Amino acid sequence: MGKFTVLAGVLLGSALLSSTAMAQTELSLWYHGAGNEVEAKIIGQIVSDFNASQSDWAVKLESFPQAAYNDSVVAGALAGNLPDILDVDGPVMPNWAWSGYLQPLTIDEAKIADFLPGTKGIWDGKLYSIGLWDAAVAMVTRKSTLEELGLRTPTVDAPWTKDEFMAALDAAKASGKFEFAFDPGMAWTGEWYPYAFSPFLQSFGGDIIDRTSYTTAEGVLNGDAALEFGAWWQSLFTEGYSPLAQDPADRDSGFANGKYAFSWNGNWAALGALTAFDDAIFLPAPDFGNGPKIGAASWQFGVSAKSEHPEGASAFIAFALQDKYLTAFSDGIGLIPPTPASAAASINYKAGGPMEAFYELSAKQALLRPATPGYVVAAKVFEKALADIANGADVGETLDAAVDEIDADIEKNGNYGF
Amino acid sequence: MAAIQSDNHGLRLFVRYAVLTLIAVIFIFPLIFMLMSSLKPDQQLLTDTESLRAFLPVGDISLDNYFAAFRRAPVGLFVFNSVLVTGLTVLLSLAVCSLAAFAFVFIDWRGRELLLTLILATLIVPFETIAIPLLLISANLPWIGLEGITRGWLNSYQVQIVPFIADGLTIFLFVQYFKDLPGELIEAARVEGASWGQVYRKVVMPLAGPVLATAAILKFLAMYNQYLWPLMVVQQEAYRPVMVGLQYFFQLNRAWGEIMAYLSLITVPVLAFYLFLQRAFIASIASTGIKG
């Protein structure tokens, strides 16, 4: 074979390769996981696999640090600079859809039929986003603590009642072994408040917004059930069950250091608890009268309203829903796999796995935060109200003021389309 | 009598140094805590916060947090971006603002008092109030680069530099300093036939060392600590500065040691810049009488 033939072959091959590359339309993807090595590796692998699996689309990933992500997206939307695909925190999704940042997601519904409810971003009757994992909160403690305090081990089917829970806190307090009986996580602010604490309110029978109309908080955030919840919440601090001010370091390591008997914490902290104590267990939320509740919905993928290639964006999202990726995220960063198959294949959530309890909690106790564009404002109002009540503000007045503020925002925004 | 006075002097000196040392310790302890913590594993770091060990290089000491910080984020790139953006902004700001102040103080022109008042009035306008209009403008501005004329400044260095070149505070500092310069110097130069440009370059600026240092340090700190604006206008990692980069370390399970290592690394340029200009900065404060 002459040099000319070889050269011609190389040129032809290059031309073919470049024409293949040229044929791929670029899709931009914004993701919130910058700074998390494991997460970056998995999302990078999905993008790489997708790009190699077909010749129509080439996804280009741009990662943002989570704490800066929402503000970056809002600024991007203002400047007309949104990507094709973006991920969105579940409770924020309705606001972004209502604001025109997202368009409905067109993927085969059969593909997500067995996904946990918390992973499906549905608003106004349409699917806008889908998550590759869910997150859950549980009452973390130790078997030895339950035994020493003579407490019944609650189960998903038979959780503690309010009286049992308060008796458990009393027993922990009376033992003198702990600085505080219960660590709700006061060092964390922002979305932690509605995510972690509004399920308590819902278990009392109240809510952040009236879900029958989504146009008011009147009666649910300041009704009898909410007042009872508020009084209980305040008593956690006035009665000395929980620390009002908490150092972030204590939130991270207080339970492991034996400062707290019970810690209300997420599945993302579960591996740390298991590392600290081999008898750490994860208990379901107490039932305050209207069933035990925990929060649901984590980060999900959606297609931006600006995308000129929603079919390509949807194809990428559908590709990412493969069980092997769902399991990889779970194994990598401890998240709850959204399907039975991915859970069964995971290290932590398979039958007998150390965090198996969280999957069951997500499946049976999870309640989505109110799916309304007004949630983002209501969540901040709820956070401030709870902080004020914890600091001693009058429960009734504070909740009434919160209702007024939420209702004013809803009215100002034309009931957010409801 | 003389002996008593001497004793009093010694006592006063001792008390003065004791107080100064205490103040210095208060200011330096956070830095020591940051540096020491950056050398410790998380568990030890958190435990040590409950004692004076937090300020000592004791226990399991290593550079692991620094290596981990470099693995988690492109620290070098972020520092480079911040130093580049900050450095260019400081240089351009000193040139533009000193020229503006020169015109306000030495050249007689109609409306200068009114314009100076308007510029100074911008000092009470928080950046947040103009951020969104500025974003919308920046997103549509044209730019001539290697790719020809493009539209939109998002994801670039210029969008982080240009809006901050001129500012009321820096102009105010130069105006105040120039007002205190002897008018005879300027008049003599003009009588000798010097142009305004020559007066600026050869008479005024050679005397402006202290205010240059003050303005440079204040501008450096403001620019190096930029967070909101780059968050809004930079979506690509390639242009991200250090403060947005800090958010890479605030994951659900926070790696405190890595955070301290990152903070130690990004503090180095600030300390180096301050130490470089420290003498002129202090001279400026002493001469302009803006002591805290």
Question: Any key phrases for this structure?
Answer:
heterodimer, A: about 425 residues, alpha/beta, D-Maltodextrin-Binding Protein, domain 2, 2 domains, seven-stranded mixed sheet, four-stranded mixed sheet, 16 helices, 13 strands, about 45% helix, B: about 290 residues, mainly alpha, MetI-like fold, two-stranded antiparallel sheet, 14 helices, flat
Structure, described:
The complex is a heterodimer of chains A (about 425) and B (about 290). By secondary structure, chain A is an alpha/beta fold. Chain A has two domains: about 180 residues, 3-Layer(aba) Sandwich (D-Maltodextrin-Binding Protein, domain 2), CATH 3.40.190.10; about 200 residues, D-Maltodextrin-Binding Protein, domain 2 (3-Layer(aba) Sandwich), CATH 3.40.190.10. In chain A, α15 runs antiparallel to α16. The longest helix of chain A has 21 residues. Chain B is mainly alpha-helical and about 290 residues long. Chain B folds into two domains: about 60 residues, no CATH class; about 220 residues, MetI-like fold (Orthogonal Bundle), CATH 1.10.3720. Chain B is about 70% helix and about 5% strand. Chain B contains 14 helices and two strands; from the N terminus they run ααααααββαααααααα. In chain B, a hairpin with a 2-residue loop joins β1 and β2. At the A-B interface, α3 and α9 of A face α2, α6 and α12 of B.
- How much of the polypeptide of chain A forms β-strand, as a percent range? 5-15%
Number of helices in the DSSP assignment of chain B: 14
Could you tell me the number of beta strands of chain A? Answer: 13
Shape of chain A: globular
**What Rg of chain A, in angstroms, do the CA atoms define?**
24 Å
| CATH class annotation of the largest domain in chain A | Alpha Beta
Helical fraction of chain B: 55-70%
First-last Cα distance of chain B? 38 Å
Structural class of chain A: alpha/beta
User: What is the architecture of the largest domain in chain B at the second tier of CATH?
Assistant: Orthogonal Bundle
Could you state the CATH homologous superfamily of the largest domain in chain B?
MetI-like
Q: How many strands in all of chain B?
A: 2
Count of helical regions of chain A = 16
CATH fold name of the largest domain in chain B, please? MetI-like fold
Secondary-structure element order of chain B, as H and E? HHHHHHEEHHHHHHHH
Q: For the terminal residues of chain A, how far apart are their CA atoms?
A: 74 Å
Gyration radius of chain B (Cα, Å) is 24 Å
CATH class of the largest domain in chain B: Mainly Alpha
Which ranges of chain A are low-confidence, i.e. pLDDT below 50, for 5 or more consecutive residues? 15-21
What portion of residues of chain B belong to β-strands?
under 5%
Class of secondary structure makeup of chain B: mainly alpha
